[in-house]
Amino acid sequence: MQALSLHMSKTAMGASQKDFESAMNQVKLLKKDPGNEVKLKLYALYKQTTEGPCNTPRPGVFDLINKAKWDAWNALGNLPKETARQNYVDLVSDLSSSDSSSQVKPEADRKQPGYETLVVTSEDSITKIMMNRPAKKNALTIQMYREIMLALEAASKDDSTIIVLTGNGDYYSSGNDLMNFMNIPPGEMEKEAKNGAILLRDFVGCFIDFPKPLVAVINGPAIGISVTILGLFDLVYASDRATFHTPFTHLGQSPEGCSSYTFPKIMGQAKAAEMLMFGKKLTAREACAQGLVTEVFPDSTFQKEVWTRLKAYSKLPRNTLHISKQSIRNLEKEKLHAVNAEENSVLQERWLSDECINAVMSFLSRKAKL
Ligand SMILES: CCCC/C=C/CC(=O)SCCNC(=O)CCNC(=O)[C@H](O)C(C)(C)COP(=O)(O)OP(=O)(O)OC[C@H]1O[C@@H](n2cnc3c(N)ncnc32)[C@H](O)[C@@H]1OP(=O)(O)O
């Protein structure tokens, strides 16, 4: 009733029959269901406008819907037809404006500014960080590592419940951009290897310390560091088109992302060795069977099924979810940071080795031939 009296006072001049008819058409165009209470109000005002006060017998006790409608109409008593018409028009006008403001904005409008290699969006209490170099299979440049760290830092403080990392295009990510190793002046190799190790330590450290539920949505093949850090995520959903490949030995490099600790724990020593030492590439279903992936979805329905699931999860009590994540992670944090430091110090050495330099040169010369 309070809402109705508010509407009554809003327009000084009365609504015309034409306004009323146009409001009736507007109701049919509403995208959002206004709910039963408002629908009953609209019904009652419509009846009062077109027929005057309710004077039909009250429907029987089991005719629940018609009884509710009758009650709503009857509650308007002797409200004059003109006032009912005005109230109907005002109510529809309010519903139409809230309906249009609640419509989903296109992704371009929701995109957070300031990132060149990522698209970061927030919706439905989910912050999505999407790696956005599809032409280069989302290979991770130095700038991209830094932007992912910045996006995670911002997401840890925003009001989102869940954070998602995913890739744009046909790949999730092809791992470290091998061009990161290029154009290093001869005398600067050791310094650059040290800087690389510091960057990697900080990057992996962000995933170790991240306080909210972190979900990887693996839209396609994943290579190298984009695979190893999966052991630090809470959920890993994969398209059945995805593969998981850590060809470190072929590249003269050693495992990172805490995988030397998390992979044996997740899949057992023997399976971890096959991946991390011998570079065995796993299909999504194999990775799921070995516990690295939470669930695999057919590629044709992947996005729809995963986002429906995540939207439902994002409605869970936020603080409880975050506290649970932190209790699980806190048990291991110290160990994970120690593993991260050890892996990076080994890698720093590997990057200076002939085996690594030759592997990178061979990738780059293959590129030159193409
Ligand atoms: C500082 C922190 C260091 C952390 C260390 C992490 C270790 C790792 O992550 S190791 C993993 C390194 N990644 C690789 O070895 C993958 C190399 N790329 C490939 O083998 C192939 O490109 C591919 C299998 C991913 C795709 O092959 P496909 O034939 O389908 O496409 P391409 O024509 O090769 O690729 C398109 C385009 O993208 C460039 N590209 C793809 N991945 C990388 C990469 N990782 N680094 C640099 N560039 C990459 C590729 O060269 C093509 O570029 P052009 O179009 O300019 O030729």
If you had to describe this structure to a student in words, what would you say it looks like?
With 370 residues, the chain is α/β, with parallel strands linked by helices. 53% of the residues lie in helices and 10% in strands. Strands 1-2-3-4-6-9 form a six-stranded mixed β-sheet, sandwiched between helices. A three-stranded mixed β-sheet has the order 5-7-8. The N and C termini lie far apart (74 Å). Bound molecules: ligand LG6FSS7D. Ligand LG6FSS7D is lined by residues 136-137, 139, 174-180, 196, 199-200, 223-225, 251, 253, 256, 363, 367, 370.
Bound molecules: ligand LG6FSS7D
Order of helices and strands: HHHHHHEEHEHEEHEEHHEHEHHHH
> Which percent band covers the strand fraction?
5-15%
Shape assignment: elongated
Percent of residues in helical segments?
40-55%
Q: Poorly predicted ranges (pLDDT <50, ≥5 residues)?
A: 1-12
Q: Give the helix/strand class.
A: alpha/beta
* Count of DSSP H/I helices: 16
Let me know the number of strands: 9
Straight-line distance between termini: 74 Å
Radius of gyration: 30 Å
Mean pLDDT: 91
Largest sheet strand order: 1-2-3-4-6-9
Largest sheet: 6 strands, mixed
Pathway: Lipid metabolism; fatty acid beta-oxidation
Keywords: Acetylation, Isomerase, Mitochondrion, Peroxisome, Phosphoprotein, Transit peptide
Catalytic activity: a (3Z)-enoyl-CoA = a 4-saturated (2E)-enoyl-CoA; (3E)-tetradecenoyl-CoA = (2E)-tetradecenoyl-CoA; a (3E)-enoyl-CoA = a 4-saturated (2E)-enoyl-CoA; (3E)-nonenoyl-CoA = (2E)-nonenoyl-CoA
Subcellular location: Mitochondrion; Peroxisome matrix
